[in-house]
Amino acid sequence: MMKENSNCENCMNFVYDEDYDEYVCIANIDEDEYSRFISGSRCPYFRFGDDYTIVKKQM
Questions:
Q1: Where are the beta strands (DSSP E) in 9-49?
Q2: Is the dihedral of CA 53, 28, 41, 23 positive or negative?
Q3: Quick one: pLDDT at residue 51?
Q4: Checking DSSP bridges between strand 14-17 and strand 22-25, what pairing results, if any?
Q5: Cα dist. 45→19, 36, 53, 59 in Å?
Q6: Measured between alpha carbons, how far is 46 from 11 in angstroms, rounded to an integer?
Q7: Using the 8-state DSSP alphabet, how is residue 9 labeled?
Q8: What is this structure's pTM?
Q9: Cα distance between residue 42 and residue 44, in whole Å
Q10: What Rg do the C-alpha atoms of the chain give, in angstroms?
Q11: pLDDT tens per residue across span 1-45
């Protein structure tokens, strides 16, 4: 789920999953954290990654 304030596209935890054929978040988020996140809070697991650092991680 993408939210405007989440900025998932720049997060190191947002990776492409070939099984689902889409991008998914790999952070281990429990139900309470997820409910806070979808209610508008900032994601506690956000880690900024530009294109170069994300590609290095995937190699």
A1: 14-17, 22-25
A2: positive
A3: 61
A4: antiparallel
A5: 23, 12, 17, 22
A6: 6
A7: G
A8: 0.59
A9: 6
A10: 12
A11: 444 445 788 888 888 999 999 999 898 888 888 888 778 777 778
